[in-house]
Amino acid sequence: MTQFNRRTMIKIGGAAATLPLLGSRAFAQEKLKVGFVLIGTPDDNGWNHGHDRGRQEMVDAIGADKVETTVVTNVPEGPDSERVFRELAQQGHKLIYATSFGFGDYVHKVAKMFPDVKFEWATGNATAPNVSLYNAKFHEGRSVIGTISGMMTKTNKIAYIGSFPIPEVRMGINAYAIAARKANPNVTVKVVYVDSWFDPAKEADAARALIDQGVDIITQHTDGPAALQVAEERGIVGGFGQGADMSAFAPNAHLTAIIDRWGPHYIKSVQSVLDGTWAEGSVWDGLASGEVEIGPYNAKIPADVVAAAEATKAGIIDGSLHPFAGPIKDNAGAERVAAGDIIDDGEYWAVDWYVEGVEA
Amino acid sequence: MSTELIIAIIITIAGAATPILLAALGELVVEKSGVLNLGVEGMMLIGAVITVAVTLTTGNHLLAVVCAALAASLSSLIFGVLTLTLSANQVATGLALTILGTGFSALFGQPYTGKDVPLLRSPFPPELATDPIWRVLFGYSPLVYFALIMVVVVWWFLQKTRAGLILRAVGENDLSAHSIGYPVIGIRYLAVAFGGAMAGIAGSCFPLFLTPQWVERLTTGRGWIALALVVFAAWRPFRLLAGAYFFGLMMIFEIYAKTNSAFRVLPSEFWAALPYLATVLVLVLISLRREGSTAAPACLGKPFVATG
User: Fold this and answer.
1) Do the Cβ atoms of B255 and A191 come within 8 Å?
2) Which of B213, B232, B236 is nearest to B224 (CA)?
3) Half-sphere exposure in the Cβ direction for A195 (13 Å, CA)
4) Domain for residue B104, yes or no?
5) How many domains does chain B have?
6) CA distance A75 to A110
7) Which of B115, B120, B135, B211 to mutate to test the interface with A (most CBs of A within 10 A)?
8) Is the pLDDT of residue A15 over 60?
9) What stretch of H or E contains A328?
10) Which 3 state secondary structure label does DSSP give A89?
11) What is the phi/psi pair of residue A154, to 5°?
């Protein structure tokens, strides 16, 4: 409930009085200031790179005469990020993108203080009148690379290097394991969490340890190509780019990549702020709308594997194949999803178990 | 567990231990002279970015390592001028050096991001390293062997040479060393420059054999682990060697505890925390053993101003 007191009434009156003045200035000359808060740097060749590329696409499409962007890099997911959001809002940014899950609490705090500033929280799970969510169904891409992994592994041991056990990462692992085991029921997926979105040395060490234990395909849900480089060095079957094409780092090991394309969403959402039509909401698209793309296939992947991967992709796009279609058992053997049922978008966030074949 | 897995684990541990060993050896000499330089992480980053730049432009790994050592050493001299000549606070200046190194490397490294750095492989013929048993002896990057040699060199220098004795004297009692005519400030400059060079070479390890690429903050806190290691080792080179491999072992055990049921006797978080728990334990043991004194050099962190 909103309570009015004298002070707010005066404020509202004052704001209304200056509105015509401000309005004409804003529409005639002022560019829309848009802030991007990144957990790493755009040169990570992964997650942050994807967001920055989306930002550039947005500026190109909207026009540098209408929009001005500020990118704040290396912002840790902690209380300090609140200061960053507050500062951006104070400097007149009217639309602020928080590009990581861990910024959520701070975005909501600052959003309350600046009701006229719009916030968008990537991969988040709670909206407010001026906080929207946007996300991509990366797990759809995981189904495609899971199919490739299941068909190409020789040791039947594949691995997944994760950052933190949050819903998004856990469901990526589940989608990957389900698809891999559909292609090859003998496959097991070893999971390692490195407790960071960015720690190349630890990711590389994890990759080495996994390869030493017989794993021959590694995929990762962290922000860089460190694990792929180890895959290349050790000459295993391969790995996958995450967020962006990483084939430059591992020309032989890079089988394909799950590529994030945030550009279309950024264009739409910035345009809606310019038009004054922005509204609280949640966007969660995947392969079908092009938010998630599968990169080019490595030439060493056999034609039947490429065909199976393409069939998985086509099935997800036309809706005939769901990444989480039952029957699904968890890794303790209990049936969690009955045949004919699926884990839908609402249930997705509550899953706290791993599917059969996952060693975590 | 098979022999091959054990050997593979040993090789991975050596890789993880080498950068912290190199950086900690340099810092040990610095601290033995009575100076506390908290800028290790920054100097490592400078070393790492220079290594990437030189390797990508010239293709010469040795030149890259030498340039990394020189550049990091030069950056440590900024710390030297501030703390030794101008008697600034060493803790604050060291932290500033880390911030400077982080910023400088990010700026300087921009043109080199997104590029694959050629690995610095074992100097021995590849046939020697293909056999799993021989791999444990011959399968490492040259910097791994260099770090082991430097342990002996630093020990020999500190314990067996006159110059090492003078350096320790300066760290234990700068006023006495000064009063019998030793150039305290000059000796500390040399120690700081050596510490910088070693941190730079430690930084080289990342692009040359651990993570062959450049990204901002590539060393992700390994410099701070090196600082803890010096304390853990109670300022002794051979204990430092054991400590570096112990720290490396724990880093790798943490991963194995997550992937291999044979290692799951204790939770992975325990292995991750163990190096720091062990450091605290060592500090407690040291202060229990020698009443009223620690193993730290007596003048550690105190500015020296010559009087009279």
Assistant:
1) no
2) B232
3) 8
4) yes
5) 1
6) 15
7) B211
8) no
9) strand A328-329
10) helix
11) -100, -30
- Could you say which of 3.40.50.300, 3.40.50.720, 3.40.50.1450, 3.40.50.2300 is the CATH number of the domain covering A139-258+294-359? 3.40.50.2300
State whether residue A217 is helix, strand or coil.
strand
Structure tokens at A133: 């969510």
Query: CA angle at residue B210 from A138 to B44, to 5 degrees?
Result: 110
Q: Is residue B214 part of a domain?
A: yes
Contact yes or no for B255 and A200 at CB 8 A: no
Residues of B in Cβ contact (< 8 Å) with A198: 215, 217, 220
User: b/e per residue, B14-36, with b = 16+ CB within 10 A?
Assistant: bbbbbbbbbbbbbbbbbbbbbbb
As a whole number of angstroms, the distance between CA A204 and CA A216 comes to 14
More confident residue, B126 or A174: A174
Q: Residue B291's pLDDT is what?
A: 56
pLDDT tens, position by position, B14-59: 999 999 999 999 999 999 999 999 999 999 999 999 999 999 999 9
Give A244→chain B minimum CA distance, Å: 11
If one counts every other C-beta atom within 10 angstroms of the C-beta of residue A155, the result is 15
Q: Is A202's CB within 8 Å of B258's CB?
A: no
Residue contact A229–B211, C-beta within 8 A? yes
Q: How many C-alpha atoms does A285 have within 13 Å on its Cβ side?
A: 14
Q: pLDDT by residue (tens digit) across A220-230?
A: 998 788 999 99
Q: Is residue A83 a contact partner of residue A75, using CB atoms and an 8 Å limit?
A: no
C-beta of residue A191 within 8 angstroms of C-beta of residue A164: no
Q: Which residues contact A320 (CB under 8 A, 6 or more apart)?
A: none
Q: Based on the number of CB atoms within 10 Å of its own CB, is A245 exposed (0-12), middle (13-18) or buried (19 or more)? A: middle
Here the ipTM equals 0.83
Residue at B304 is within a domain: no
**Residue A111 near residue A258 (C-beta atoms within 8 A):** no
Most confident of A205-209, A286-290, B192-196: B192-196
Residues A199-225 have a mean pLDDT of: 91
Cβ contact B206–A359 (<8 Å): no
Please name the member of A191, A200, A229 whose beta carbon is closest to the beta carbon of B218.
A200
Q: pLDDT tens for residues A312-351?
A: 999 999 999 999 998 999 999 999 999 989 998 888 888 9
Instruction: Report the distance separating Cα B224 and Cα B294, nearest Å.
Output: 21
Average pLDDT rounded to a whole number, residues A245-268:
93
Asked if A192's CB is within 8 angstroms of B259's CB, the reply is yes
Q: Quick check: B136 contacting A, CB < 8 Å?
A: no
Tokens of A119: 């916030």
Contact B70, B224 (CB under 8 A): no
Question: What architecture (CATH level 2) is domain A28-137+262-285?
Answer: 3-Layer(aba) Sandwich (3.40)
Give the tokens for residue A3.
Answer: 């309570």
Contact A191 B116 (CB under 8 A): no
Describe the crossing of helices A79-90 and A104-113 by its angle, rounded to 10 degrees.
40
Residue A189 near residue A359 (C-beta atoms within 8 A): yes
| Contact (CB<8Å) A201/B220 | yes
Mean of the pLDDT values across residues B99-122?
90
Note the pLDDT tens digit of each residue in A116-136. Answer: 999 999 988 889 999 999 999
Closest Cα in chain B, distance from residue A21 (Å):
42
Report which secondary-structure segment, H or E, holds A36: strand A32-37
Which residue of chain A comes nearest to B112, CA vs CA? A43
**What are the helix and strand counts (H, E) for chain A?**
10, 15
The enclosing H or E element of B237 equals helix B237-259
